[in-house]
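Hi team,

Filling in the usual template for the complex we talked about on Friday. All components are listed, including any nucleic acid strands or ligand strings, so the model treats them as one assembly.

SUBMITTER: L.P.
PURPOSE: interface mapping
COMPONENTS: two
RESIDUES: 672
SEQUENCES:
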Amino acid sequence: MNNRPILLVEDNPDDQQLALRAFRKSNLGNEVVIASDGVEALDYLFGTGPYSGGASPELPAVVLLDLKLPRKDGLEVLREIRASERTRLLPVVIVTSSREEQDLVNGYSLGANSYVRKPVDFNEFVNAVQQLGLYWLILNESALG
Amino acid sequence: MKKVRSVRQKFVATILVTTVVALLISGCSMVAYNLQNYRNNLINELTAQAALLGRANTPALQFDDPQAAADYLALLVEQPKVRAAAIYNARGALFASYSRDNTSPGDLPTIPEIDGNRVEGSNIVLFKRIVANNEILGTVYLQVHYQLYEKLLGNLGIALASFALALLAAILLSLWLQASVTRPILAISGMAHRVVKDNDYSLRAEKTTDDEIGRLVDAINAMLAEVEQRNLELENFNLELADQVKERTEAEKALRETQQQVLQLNTVLEQRVRERTLQLENANKELEAFSYSVSHDLRAPLRAIDGFSQALLEDYTDNLDDTGRDYLARVRGGAQRMGMLIDDLLKLSRVSRAELKIQEVDLSELATTILNELREGEPERRVDIRITSGLKAPCDPQLIQIALQNLLSNAWKYSGTREQAHIEFGMRAQNGEVGFFVQDNGVGFDMDYAGKLFGAFQRLHDQSEFPGTGIGLATVKRIISRHGGRVWTEAALDKGATFYFTLPATVPAEANWQKEEHHEQQTNLAG
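RESULT (copied from the run log):
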């Protein structure tokens, strides 16, 4: 359970690196899988596209979902996650680049569990994770830290 | 002209009838008088004749000498009027007789009658007693040709002749007279006719006499003058009326044209408003899209700058000297400040775009909450806070919260250097305008620069002393403007500042009442 990966859906390479650094510095042991747009994220979750063929990958422990994405944007991805029986209860944390209220309202109304501001700061991430009750992530950190 | 002629005829006829009647009466009277006179004269003459005959024949009777009497009677032949005569004796027997036409004695009366006379046919007969010494001796009988008819004819002839002459004279006279009387009347009549026919009231009758006709001419002329004057006035009045009607018609026409133009203009304006509204809506959408991009994309490079600077500082701190670390800190500071500017700009833009949701808001409560939060942020500061309670206004709660947050934060910030700071929120009239106010005893500012205060990015203080982006008051102004209100300020350098704002749709009667009770209601929140 606590070894399940974290799915980071982020198209900006800078933000990807900063997030990866934050997780690395926190000694979080979980693998971080990166999808750089909405289609890629859904392919990973549903075992389609490049991920088809073999057995579907393990579902991530949490999805960090940017809203502004090429091809399919974050809200569309969220809608499809909530629409599928397999991923209906998957914890999704929205990553926003601003406190633009409408983004948060739309996200929550589509079933987002929490949000963090960019760049993903580890402390903020911990707050969001605590809200979700995913204590194992922090436990993992404290175990390793 | 028939009537005119009849007037003339009437005039002549009147004169003639009058003349004829007068002539007839006088003629008849004259004839009657003449005949009466003739008769009386005749009878007197006969009576005298009979008396003479009686006296003359008295001796013949006394001596009973009928021959002498007959001789005497024969003398009557000199009197052609006497047709017959007789003398009777005292006993009444015929004594002597005379007859001009040898009338037989049988035609004579057989016996005498008493004294008297009478008309018998064309004759007058007369009896006269012969008296001597109071003794009746006999009776004289005279038969005289009356000649009344001849006399009558003669008289009538004279009368007729004079009648004819008089009538002729009357006709001539009346013709001459009527001309002098009727000419002025005819002149008046003709003039009146022309007046009626030509509607020319300037005509005047000529006055030729000073009598009643002259006065009539005067009266008619005066009347005509009056009528002419009235007519003139009436014509002028009519002209004036016509002018007025014309003016009014033109004015109405102009008005209709103007109305038409206004209608057309309105249509054009409405069309333009629709177009502009559409343009504005589009612009607004574009602006929202732009803001969204700014919010997401403009911040991305800043995140990289700040994030990797932080990574350098944290992960490679040993490879940098102090100067390098200072530079990197400055890079981070600049990036963070840029982030704040972007945030504030977005807030300002949101304030402009957000739809107003008006409801009754307790501004006093809101101010209390905001100041309590500020106090929690810096609990060590000594700040005396006064808030007039119960100040309410209908407004958008979120926007007014942002405005009050900005004003109260400024008051808090700029009074930070005071040993004992004072911050007050309330309501009062300034220059006849009732507004809410936020007052502090902070560093204030020079009123010369007050105009710059509400522009975006305008700052009057050193960034190092009082940090800020210069967006706050621009945001406040925009929020109050969107509520239809006004913001103004009153300040002096180093003597604090007061910011006033109005929410005009709003200032309720309740608030006015509270204004008077202001001082009693003050709540001292100073801790």
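MY TAKE: Chain B has a mean pLDDT of 82. Residues 212-315 of chain B form the longest helix (104 residues).

Thanks, L.
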